[in-house]
């Protein structure tokens, strides 16, 4: 798939305020500072479509981006470690869960995980929550440029062993590096394949 156009569409505080379109949506979410905005910019061939920041928790709204005038990338607030008030954190968590539970346009979620870390409870709990609520998802391991191939293979093996405790069939897994522009083609081809089956 080629990205011919990508533009900001709408920011919403709550799921009920999201666009009233019927276009398929792909939600990107992960822990704060996982490289979500950089990944979105990389796969859309943009430098500043999604706002990047060195401050964790910068994304605090549900942001829709219109891609090729036919589907949406949805940039969701990160979970965990955001430097904000407890009341705001509670609001973010509710906006996230409401989006996943009620957004009919959602086709699939991409859970972003920093490949440098060992399996973390906060990621595993969120993945399990998605599965329990029957929300389709895939996993994108980010920042692969920070490790050697052997280190990446070992990290993936550990993660797969952890996931196999709850799943017989593992979700789709992608490797990416915004710095090296790797993983872009695999992710877009995956989205295109789904789009072709539903649009």
Task: Characterize the structure shown.
The chain has 199 residues and is α/β, with parallel strands linked by helices. It has one domain (6-198): Rossmann fold. It is built from 5 helices and 7 strands; from the N terminus they run ββαββαβαβαβα. The protein has a 7-stranded mixed β-sheet with strand order 1-3-4-2-5-6-7, with helices on both faces. The radius of gyration is 16 Å and the shape is globular.
Give the helices and strands, then pairings.
Blueprint: E1 6-12, E2 25-30, H1 36-43, E3 62-67, E4 71-75, H2 86-102, E5 106-114, H3 121-132, E6 137-142, H4 149-163, E7 173-175, H5 184-198
Parallel strand pairs: 2-4, 2-5, 5-6, 6-7
Antiparallel strand pairs: 1-3, 3-4
Short description:
The chain has 5 helices and 7 strands. The chain has 199 residues and is of the alpha/beta class.
Keywords:
alpha/beta; Rossmann fold; 199 residues; globular; 7 strands; 7-stranded mixed beta sheet
> Which architecture would the CATH scheme give at its second level?
3-Layer(aba) Sandwich
- How far apart lie the N and C ends? 14 Å
Q: Enumerate the spans where pLDDT stays under 50 for 5 or more consecutive residues.
A: 54-58, 81-85
Beta-strand level of the residues, as a percent range?
15-25%
SSE string, helix = H, strand = E?
EEHEEHEHEHEH
Categorize the overall geometry: globular
- SS elements, strand count: 7
Annotation field: number of helices: 5
Mind telling me the CATH superfamily name?
A: P-loop containing nucleotide triphosphate hydrolases
Named CATH topology: Rossmann fold
Average pLDDT number: 89
Q: What portion of residues is helical?
A: 25-40%
Question: What structural class results from the helix and strand content?
Answer: alpha/beta
CATH class: Alpha Beta
The main sheet orders its strands as 1-3-4-2-5-6-7
Give the tally of structural domains.
1
Characterize the largest beta sheet: strand count, sense, and whether it forms a barrel.
7 strands, mixed
**Alpha-carbon Rg, integer:** 16 Å
């Amino acid at each position: 798939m080629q990205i011919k156009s990508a533009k900001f569409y709408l920011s919403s505080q709550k799921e009920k305020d999201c666009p009233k379109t019927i276009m398929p949506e792909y939600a990107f979410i992960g822990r704060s500072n996982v490289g979500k905005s950089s990944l979105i910019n990389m796969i859309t061939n943009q430098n500043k479509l999604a706002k990047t920041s060195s401050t964790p928790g910068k994304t605090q709204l549900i942001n829709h981006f219109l891609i090729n005038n036919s589907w949406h990338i949805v940039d969701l607030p990160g979970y965990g470690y955001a430097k904000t008030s407890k009341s705001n954190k509670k609001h973010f968590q509710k906006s996230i869960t409401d989006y996943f539970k009620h957004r009919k346009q959602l086709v699939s979620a991409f859970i972003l995980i920093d490949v440098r870390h060992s399996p973390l409870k906060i990621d595993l709990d969120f993945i399990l929550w998605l599965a329990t609520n029957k929300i389709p998802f895939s996993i994108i391991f980010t920042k692969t440029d920070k490790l050697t191939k052997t280190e990446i293979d070992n990290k993936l093996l550990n993660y797969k062993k952890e996931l196999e405790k709850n799943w017989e069939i593992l979700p789709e897994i992608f490797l990416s590096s915004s710095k090296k522009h790797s993983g872009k083609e695999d992710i877009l081809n995956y989205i295109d394949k789904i789009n072709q089956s539903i649009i």
